[in-house]
Amino acid sequence: MMSKVGAVMVIGGGISGVQTSLDLADSGFKVYLVEKRASIGGTMAQLDKTFPTNDCSMCIMAPKLVAAGRHHNIELITNADVEEINGVPGDFRVTLKRRTLRVDENKCTGCGVCAEKCPVETVDEYNQGMKKRKAIFVMYPQAVPLVFSIDKEACIGCGVCYEECRAKAVVYEKPDEALEISVGAVILSPGFDEFDARLKKEYGYGHYKNVVTSIEFERMLSATGPYFGAVLRPSDGEIPKKVAFIQCVGSRDEQVGNTYCSSVCCMYAIKEAIIAGEHTAGLKPTIFFMDVRAVGKEFENYRERAEKEYGVIIRRGTRVASVEEDTATKNLLVRYSENGGIATEEFDMVVLSVGMRPSEDAEKLSRRLDFRLNKHGFCETDVFSPLCTSRPGIFVSGSFASPKDIPTTVAEASGAAAKAAALIADVRNTQVTVKEYPAEIDVTGQEPRVGVFVCHCGINIGGVVKVPSVVEYAKTLPGVVYAEENLYTCSSDTQEKIKAMIKEHNLNRVVVASCTPRTHEPLFQNTIREAGLNTYLFEMANIRDQCSWIHMHEPEKASKKARDLVRMAVAKARLLEPLKKSSIPVNHSTIVIGGGLAGMTAALEVSAQGFPVHIIEKTGQLGGSLARLYHKEGTREPREYMNELIAKVRDAKNITVHLDSEVKDVTGFVGNFKVKTSGDEIESGVIIVATGATDYKPSEHSYGKDKRVITQLELEQKLEDKSLRAKKIAMIQCVGSRNEQVPYCSRICCVTAMKNAIAVKRQNHATEVYVFHKDIRTYGFREELYKEACELGVKFIRFPEEDMPRVGGNGDQLEVIAHDTVLGEDVLVKPDILVLSVGIRPNEGNEELAKMLKVPLSKDKYFLEAHMKLRPVDFATEGIFLAGSAHWPKFIDEVIAQASGAATRAMTIISKDELETEGIIAAVNEDICDGCGICEPTCEYKAIQVVKVSENPERLKVAVNEGLCKGCGACVAACPSGAMEQKGFKSSQVIAMIDSALEGGDS
Amino acid sequence: MSATEAKHEIGSAGEEWDPKIIVFCCNWCSYAGADLAGVSRLQMPTDFRVIRTMCSARVDPEFVLRAFAKGADGVLVAGCHPADCHYIGGNYRTRRRIAMLRMLLEQYGFDPDRLKLEWISASEGEKFQKTIREFTEKIREIGPNPITED
User: Fold this and answer.
1) Which of A572, A839, A888, B63 is most buried per CB count within 10 Å?
2) Taking 70 as the threshold, does the pLDDT of residue A37 lie above it?
3) B123 lies in some domain
4) Strands A319-325 and A332-338, sheet pairing
5) CATH of the domain at B136
């Protein structure tokens, strides 16, 4: 029998690769994360904000980067390229070449002195060339791993960095490395590249200074960008008043060979326009759109707010012909087509919304790794297997397969992990390591014996702060029995020193005064744990990032501050207590609510990894809305695929299907749910919500009264059974979407209309088809359908946002009248059949189910995920996940990817025997608590419940569910009686720091 | 400037006076923003001391009052921007608590501007610097905590 390898290689360390790696490493697999650059993060790390929440990109991404960098089952292989993959699925051998960093990553502490002293400046790619960086550099300040590397092209070999590096990490002659690694599966997520705007010569990018690309503009908006977040004209540094965004640069453009839509540019342009206005008062952005493709959750609402609240001017149905520079003012004249004519407008600055093109490595990778690309040059996938490449055992996620936004990418990233895990499920936990620690020393009742370690950080701290004075001062503080200084407290030899000193001086608390706990606390916690101390007997004083670096010219004051910070840390440390992480047992089965495409896919993915699943389906059969789709997707019919799925579900021994079954009650929490249905009571560790959505039942345009008025689904049925009799067909888009009652876009109706229009034309080319629309939103490769429909002679009539077509006529003849915004006049079409593209509606039962599950709904009444960008299939309530149209309307491939993703997220829980709770959580002092319940609504995680005291049922108290508590401490601050405490941040500990800070200290 | 506190006279004994400012930063956004200010070497006055909490919502009103009682001249609470909170909505609670505390301070004869709430994200090192500069300046203008002046 072939031996499988319980490890996976993930190629590409952007948000996709990072998510996949974390998911796999958390489900018992070893991960090798290969990144071609020196740090992970990818494109998302360059973004300032993300739509539609305007979240700070780095804020939401950094914790994931740090988690990946630290995970003991993820090995980062940066600055590396994959050369070839041999072997078979389950047992591959990957050959890699690792280009030398010329810096020893085990020694480099990331202090940055080398870069400060390096005399060579060169182009900073991270800032799109708008800033300079040194020849020895990290890509960005929060880079993971935080290891410097030498840019060989720029380096002059002067040796200054070698001299300056106190850690002796610079190894100029370090050679490249060849690596061979065995893995069971490979996941490709190397991302995309931006379209080269120079190819659109008519827009003058590269010639006109004030024409920039959207990614350059993004860097301008960033606080870490070239102008610290200000929008300035590159030509003169003036604040621009009028800024034009030109859409579809390198997308939907046959001239440059990219016929697809890049899916994300509409939304990012709106975002950049909003943020630019926020950063720069008086800035007036105008966006030139062909169609505004706001198809995602809350996107349409975002677009509307941009126009109404932020004054962003949106010009629809326009295509910009050219941009010309006024040589005197460097202003730009934008010529564009609108309403059948040509107009010109002057702007101070132009932003080109560049599209996504296949990664420049795509071709090379496809040859070396032997998988196929599609005609656009992206990785080839199929509608029904969106995460599989053409080579078995190699999977794909993110924008390497097609242009897509972050949430879709993250869902896919988790989904690809499911594919890889299923392949090697039987060798789970064979390659991962579990760290062994010595037994914990019991410190209860001991007087505090604090050890203080003060770091010079080379010269980063020591160059400003008088470190010896801090050490001497620390020795005088109550409870401190030992203090020393280190060149680098984080270096591996110092870790040994700390352990030795803990033993020698019987230290029971440790304080390190160095950099920030955000990056280094886990390292030191691990060290003291290795010496037998509980990890929570540790405290850090940040005397670098928040002292020596921000007070570089005031050594006296900085030294005093460092002493104060150490005193505060020691004051807290004296009161620190060991915290126990308790563990809760995990039920290994999964409950999937809903037996449609999403539910069945999720169930099969979990089942494929060997875990039991219950599907709870409301109706008497599996299949959901897939049963009504006839048009072939690729080479297969959705119905055929559905029947195959149903057969697989029936055959799977570990899937139990509960038909005609409705959820009546849900109790319990992550790892231990109990779901009562109409017939059963089922226990599970996790719950996946896959309840789908419903079609809007229209009342408009005589639907239901006039047989000639039908929906797209009914037209599809007619095309299937060849019963369509019509010479002229009119379709109206956005019936029941994007109106006052239902402001959102239903995402899929435009494509459905294109497919039907094409099918009508194919059945009988003489049939005339008119499509009335506001925008045509055929995003991604679906743009090809729009193009095909146009080529087949389908006529498109764009009507204004607020002015729906009117349907009338006498009994014999239907009439559709609409205002054509291109012609600027009303048009009349007399169709034999009128087809309504009806929107999608959330299920009516959502509210009731949401209440039972204690999860939220969005304002449109779809289920609301934990975070719209980075947690697209999780709920904030742990152990409950989301997939399919219950989340938002979506296409078959998107549903499959997302459902696979939900399965992976579920596996991170049910693959474990027990879950460890957080150490820093809330705890109730039951003697004081009177059960008033004020804390209960403050908890965002529903971790607090008012319960009866068992010995005295008259009395109430609150109980904290340790499995759900995230340790924010909001309840503690709300408690009026002081009964609630936050472990690790007890009021007494924080107050000790406050008092200590205000003591006055040594001077 | 509140009418309840006499203006601190420049040129009096307070010329050499260095204010004592306590800054509460949430772990996920503002503390990271403060770190970024450091990484970017943004210079600012030295008179503040940062205390990290996991969420700005952990900042118990008691902490703020304790700081003033112990002689702090100013207290700054910094958290994630609205809708950015790592713990979903903790910062909304903080906003209400700070508004309440400012009213309370005024009733006790403190200038409410001694207490400030600011949203600082992990990428806003600049904003951290600006906030510290302006708040320090403001506190210098208001003068020493009336409790410690006696």
Assistant:
1) A888
2) yes
3) yes
4) antiparallel
5) 3.40.50
Asked whether this complex has an ipTM greater than 0.95, the answer is no
Q: Do A546 and B35 touch (CB under 8 A)?
A: yes
Whether residues A876 and B88 touch (CB distance < 8 A) is answered with: yes
Nearest alpha-carbon partner for A418 in A73, A23, A937 = A23
Residue B46 lies in a domain: yes
Residue A626 distance to chain B (closest CA, Å)? 35
Count of domains forming chain B: 1
pLDDT tens string, chain B, 150 residues long: the values are 444 555 444 444 445 789 999 999 999 889 999 998 998 889 999 999 999 999 999 999 999 999 999 999 999 999 998 877 878 788 888 999 999 999 999 999 999 999 999 999 888 888 999 999 999 999 999 999 998 765
pLDDT value at residue A1000: 67
Contact between chains at B60 and A987 (C-beta distance less than 8 A)? yes
User: φ and ψ at B96, to 5 degrees?
Assistant: -70, -40
The answer to whether the CB atoms of A545 and B38 lie below 8 A apart is yes
Given this model, what pLDDT does residue A252 score? 96
Chain A CB contacts of B41 under 8 Å are: 549-550, 552
Q: Residue A592 belongs to what H/E stretch?
A: strand A590-593
Cα–Cα–Cα angle for A529, A532, A536, rounded to 5 degrees: 45
Mean pLDDT (chain A, rounded): 94
Pairwise CA distance, residues B72 & B114, whole Å = 9
Angle of helix A555-575 relative to helix A987-997, nearest 10 degrees? 150
In this structure, of A117-131, A489-503, A534-548, the range with the lowest mean pLDDT score is A489-503
- Is residue A534 within 8 Å of A578, Cβ to Cβ? yes
Q: Where are the alpha helices (DSSP H) in A627-671?
A: 638-651
Among residues of chain A, what percentage have pLDDT more than 70? 99
Cβ pairs bridging A and B (under 8 Å) = 169
pLDDT (mean) for A668-687: 94
Contacts of B121 in chain A (CB under 8 A): 56, 59
Q: What gap in Å lies between CA A932 and CA A912, rounded to an integer? A: 36
Instruction: For residues A812 and A831, give the distance between their C-alpha atoms in angstroms, rounded to a whole number.
Output: 11
Contact B55 A565 (CB under 8 A): no
In three-state secondary structure terms, A818 is: strand
Query: Measured between CB atoms, which of B50, B60, B71 is closest to A973?
Result: B60
What is the spatial distance between Cα A806 and Cα A821, in angstroms, rounded to a whole number?
15
CB contact under 8 A, B123 and A48: yes
Q: Tell me whether residue B4 is in a domain.
A: no
Interface test with B, best of A550, A918, A935, A939 (most B CBs within 10 A): A550
Q: Is the pLDDT of residue A683 over 50?
A: yes
User: Which residues span the domain enclosing B50?
Assistant: 21-140
- List the structure tokens of A50: 């993300």
pLDDT in tens, A169-226: 999 999 999 999 999 999 999 999 999 999 999 999 999 999 999 999 999 998 778 9
Is the residue at B41 inside a domain? yes
